[in-house]
């Protein structure tokens, strides 16, 4: 195992990121696999020391949790919720309605509108009801806004039910656990055109009385291309609707890719000579990444009250989805390296708006 040149072992003993930022917003990460077995001891101490809210990376998505019409599989989700309770961490449920990782049966071609609605209702009531009282909030609808053109993405749910599938999903979730917050979550919704489309959707929901509590800006950004001004404007625009704003899937990709999006349908092969950081992250890159993370947290800190949570999409570099999307490569997008050592980015975020630790 290698680790980046610019990293140190302060992760398990030094200051806690979540504790340091607790007066501003929650700090979270996603976790994959079945807890705690999918983590080694170093990972476990990293997770419990630096984060106070967990998002399941995959196990609560419609496909894994509800693979057949009759059958739910709560194994991994239950383990995560139990682990979080034992460590006094909150849980964000992710996600109830998405065009990816959705079981084919839910909106299969030819299903009638009423049958599709009933299947969506049964899914949401089954999952949200199972976790009632134990989940802080749900990503109710994920990535429904189109990347270009029309406002809404063409999805199986939309084709089966029509655009009102979004309102219905929020209503089903509200009814199944009135105490849970309800979020809309998407990528690139800080960018002006997609932001406008997202604002139109959220206004539509709020105007017709649909309860929506928050919006998640995923935050899959690229080194040297972080759209700081767009992010600031987006936070302000969503907060102006009265919504909580969350950065829900933060990472800072250091290997070039064509787009800042997160559409997993887009794939790209990386030749061996394009896997440029397979032997580690060079210090100058680690420094730039640290500076850009610091600027991001500075910005989030300036929006205290509007931004209520910042969650990373992965515990450490070795666990990031960006090692396999849009193609296989070695990535270093997070605050901790593969050996669970704190990177320069960790120090920079910790120093954050309050100055050096
Ligand atoms: O579980 C199967 C396993 O049984 C099978 O052998 C293996 C073979 O490929 O695949 C496994 O499933 C993979 C799954 O992750 C669990 O590891 C899928 O192929 C893979 O596509 C899936 O990727 C996830 C991706 O969402 C698609 O659902 C990533 O881990 C996850 O990080 C990513 O997360 C999404 C958010 O939910 C929404 N926003 C974008 C973000 C990044 O794409």
Helical proportion? 25-40%
Q: Termini, distance in Å?
A: 29 Å
| Biggest beta sheet attributes | 8 strands, parallel, barrel
Evaluate the radius of gyration: 20 Å
Shape: globular
Q: Total number of helical segments?
A: 11
As for the number of domains, it is 1
Unreliable runs: 1-5
Q: Tell me the name of the CATH class.
A: Alpha Beta
> On the 0-100 scale, what is the average pLDDT?
94
Beta-strand percentage range: 15-25%
What is the ordering of alpha helices and beta strands? EHEHEHHEHEHHEHEEHEHEEH
**Class of secondary structure makeup:** alpha/beta
User: Can you list the strand order of the major beta sheet?
Assistant: 2-3-4-5-6-7-9-10
Number-wise, the strands total: 11
| Secondary-structure arrangement, i.e. CATH architecture | Alpha-Beta Barrel
Q: Determine the CATH topology.
A: TIM Barrel
Q: What descriptive keywords fit this protein?
A:
357 residues; alpha/beta; TIM Barrel; 8-stranded parallel β-barrel; two-stranded antiparallel ribbon; 11 strands; 35% helix; disordered N terminus
Task: Set down the secondary structure blueprint.
Elements lengths: L6 E2 L8 H5 L4 E6 L9 H10 L2 E4 L5 H4 L9 H12 L3 E8 L15 H18 L6 E6 L13 H6 L3 H12 L4 E6 L5 H16 L6 E4 L2 E3 L5 H13 L3 E10 L29 H20 L4 E6 L29 E2 H8 L6
Parallel strand pairs: 2-3, 2-10, 3-4, 4-5, 5-6, 6-7, 7-9, 8-9, 9-10
Antiparallel strand pairs: 1-11
Helix pairs in contact: 5-7, 10-11
